[in-house]
Amino acid sequence: MSSKSSPASSFGPDCGSSLNSHSDNDQIMDDYRVALSHKLIDLVGEISAIPEYRSSVKKQYTNLARRLKLLMPMFEEIRDSKDPLPEETIRALSSLLSALVLAKELLRFGSEGSKIYLVLERDQVMVRFQEVTSELEKALGSISFEKLGISVEVKEQAELVLAQFRRAKGQFDAPDVELYDDLLCLYNNSFDPDEELDLFRKCVDKLQLCNVADLTQESLALHEMVASTDGDPEERLEKMSMLLKKIKDFVQIMNPNIDLIEEEKLAPPNACGKILKNQKSLIVPDDFRCPISLELMRDPVIISTGQTYERTSIEKWLEAGHSTCPKTQQALTSSALTPNYVLRSLIAQWCETMGIEPPKRPRSAPTQADLEIQSLLQKLTSDNPDDQRSAAGEIRLLAKRNTDNRLAIAEAGAIPLLVHLLSTPDSRIQEHAVTALLNLSICEDNKGAIISSGAVPGIVEVLKKGSMEARENAAATLFSLSVVDENKVTIGSSGAIPPLVTLLEEGSQRGKKDAATALFNLCIYQGNKGKAVRAGVISTLVKLVTEPQGTMVDEALAILAILVGHPEGKAAIGAAEAVPILVDVISNGSSRNKENAAAVLVHLCSGAQQHLIEAQELGVMAPLLDLSQNGTERGKRKAAQLLERMNRIAETTEAAPGSSRHK
């Protein structure tokens, strides 16, 4: 038998390198047996620790976990046995180990995965369940229990589990058709408006998405699924996210006292408000009302006790001589009022959802800071370059200090003036202007204003031709603006990607970091991936991964993991002969880099068996098994997928006429 088909090569770093050369050494074989049995025991232990499963898959997943737990006595007796195991038995147990890794990930998703996904994608979920069940049945069926040296009772129990797996193949329980149909109606917006509330009520109850904790968990589960697509979610996942937002809105209106600050994690800008709009009366959430005036707050501020009030109301309270918190009666340690920007943003979002005008902040007399900003803006419009340079520099520094300044500068009308200065021939003015825009963009409220002022073409021009510092800050500005999804399209179509790739290749260390973060964010959008590949980013990324100093490995692998999902990206990575580099990272990299390298390899090897064989010949099997056990959750999934494919190749090779098995 050739060394490539070694039975132990598929189950661990401690078990594969010397089996063929020492197959007659009982002690070494015994070490393999013990190591393999420990891994099997650990896997079943992890499966046993998985908590309750989602209701839509509970029965079948619980049955699967129960059957796998019944294998524990067999693995323990194998571990404790003094009898050597035949080579073919070790190979069969190795296949069972790979199948158990897949089963653990399947069961974990059934416990922690998206409830909405498990219902709407029931066919795909059941297909995957049947695939894993089939792999388990096949692996268990290939084991000769008589050769394991186990007791009669344990042997009979293992045979019972095998019989149950064989009966389970092709069988599955009928899903909750009504829940599926109801969710599908909400998913496709194909429902009668008069039945909308009843539909949501039934779905919320059956899915058990009744409070902030439930919604947060579901939101995180969907986020994890988006992350597992390397930041490029399919349309169905995006629609599921929108459906979750609708459910969140329904829960909010049914429970007006829900903790909105905690809920902020779930409520993105422009959250769907269809449910709220259909209500007969407008209910202002309690957290949006001032505890003193009971009116919707326009300028919420936080006092020293942590409570929030409308600024004018609490100011009147303090002016009247009070020194306690109106709501808690606690003594105030200071009279300072801190703007509550988070709540102000939430109120604005809620108003937009409700279709009403957001409350305007009451105008007060101009402060000294306001007057200073107005003076600086006048200098920006001056024909004197010295005035422009000093004013742009001052605004840059003011915008860096705090959120109040950023809001005040934007409200004063500075953004269009700064955008105009991006085209100035004076490199220092240009540098100040782009950096000021970067600092202003940190405030979420300002991102839209910067985009709508037509800033992107000017920022891209600075990125191409500015000083190194200006180019760095232009890249950072594009990253900041691209946090908003629709801006990714605008920036990508403006020609920003080629100069970002150039900066990634030839910039300073900071410039490379800024370019990498911008490219990563932009390439989350599918339409930008091909542009990046055609701009030559792949060769640059591969070079960065192999640099001796290794300062850009994290960023380069993260971008490669996104681009490999695009056909052009996959072809370019394959042409760059990246497999040895990826294998080296999987062997020696950090946990996150191993995860991304494995993700790239999974895509690269899909439909390209030569890459998989090359990786196997380079010794990737052992580090992959280690990653499948000790890596990040995503890393474990990717490693399991690669191990499964490699085992299939090995089985196909050994089963083919002319292989060592047939000689």
Task: Give an overview of the whole structure.
With 663 residues, this protein is mainly alpha-helical. It has 35 helices and 3 strands. The chain has a 3-stranded antiparallel β-sheet. A hairpin with a 5-residue loop joins β1 (300-302) and β2 (308-310). The longest helix has 26 residues, at 87-112. Residues 1-24, 229-233 and 258-281 have low confidence and may be disordered.
Set out the fold topology.
Blueprint: H1 26-48, H2 58-69, H3 72-80, H4 87-112, H5 115-120, H6 122-141, H7 152-168, H8 177-188, H9 196-207, H10 212-228, H11 235-254, H12 260-263, H13 274-277, E1 300-302, E2 308-310, H14 311-319, E3 338-339, H15 341-354, H16 368-380, H17 385-401, H18 403-411, H19 414-421, H20 427-441, H21 444-452, H22 455-465, H23 468-481, H24 485-492, H25 497-506, H26 509-522, H27 526-534, H28 537-546, H29 553-563, H30 567-575, H31 579-588, H32 591-605, H33 609-617, H34 621-630, H35 633-655
Helix pairs in contact: 1-2, 1-3, 1-4, 4-6, 4-35, 6-7, 8-9, 10-11, 16-17, 17-18, 17-20, 19-20, 20-23, 22-23, 23-26, 25-26, 26-29, 27-30, 28-29, 29-32, 31-32, 32-35, 34-35
Poorly predicted runs: 1-24, 229-233, 258-281
Q: What proportion of the residues is helical, as a percent range?
A: 55-70%
Q: Please, what is the average pLDDT?
A: 81
- Total strands: 3
How many H/I helical runs? 35
Cα radius of gyration in angstroms: 30 Å
Features:
single chain; 663 residues; mainly alpha; three-stranded antiparallel β-sheet; 35 helices; 3 strands; 66% helix; 1% strand; disordered N terminus
Short structural description:
The chain is an all-alpha fold and 663 residues long. The chain has helices at residues 26-48, 58-69, 72-80, 87-112, 115-120, 122-141, 152-168, 177-188, 196-207, 212-228, 235-254, 260-263, 274-277, 311-319, 341-354, 368-380, 385-401, 403-411, 414-421, 427-441, 444-452, 455-465, 468-481, 485-492, 497-506, 509-522, 526-534, 537-546, 553-563, 567-575, 579-588, 591-605, 609-617, 621-630, 633-655, and strands at residues 300-302, 308-310, 338-339.
